[in-house]
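User: Study the chain.
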Amino acid sequence: MAKKDLPEKLICANKTARLNYFIDDTFEAGIVLSGTEVKALREGRANLRDSYAQVTDGEVFLYDLHISPYTFGNRYNHEPLRVRKLLLHKQEIRRLYGKTQEKGFTLVPTRLYFKHGRVKVEIGLGRGKKLYDKRETLKRREDERDMARSFRHRDRG
């Protein structure tokens, strides 16, 4: 199988991101990692739940991404919650910086995955939801689930 044919392999997803934020735009970014971090990610040992990104001095950094230590790592194992640099084009960084300066916008990582053997992070430009927006999203999701369930039962009988 050629390298181009390999699909994206999902490591982890931030399920609460779309519940807590309206995601307006998404960007794909590379991430600077050490060797034991990549090995731990291949085991699927990551958590995006409380993580966020921030533009600092013309660079984008990812905070609170928890990558558990590699099982067979030695004393040179990585620190689980260290700040990691994201790799983006300069014009993308400028655009993200401009958007995050506007009121209510933040950078939220939504997915962490392998693409052609490299670790990528999908960052969403999000606006925070109010409580009533969250309730509306949950209600809509529940209604869609009920409709799908009723269609399934109707097709059987």
Summary: Helices lie at 17-20, 35-42, 90-101, 131-156. The chain has one domain: 9-129. The CA atoms of residues 43 and 70 lie 8 Å apart.
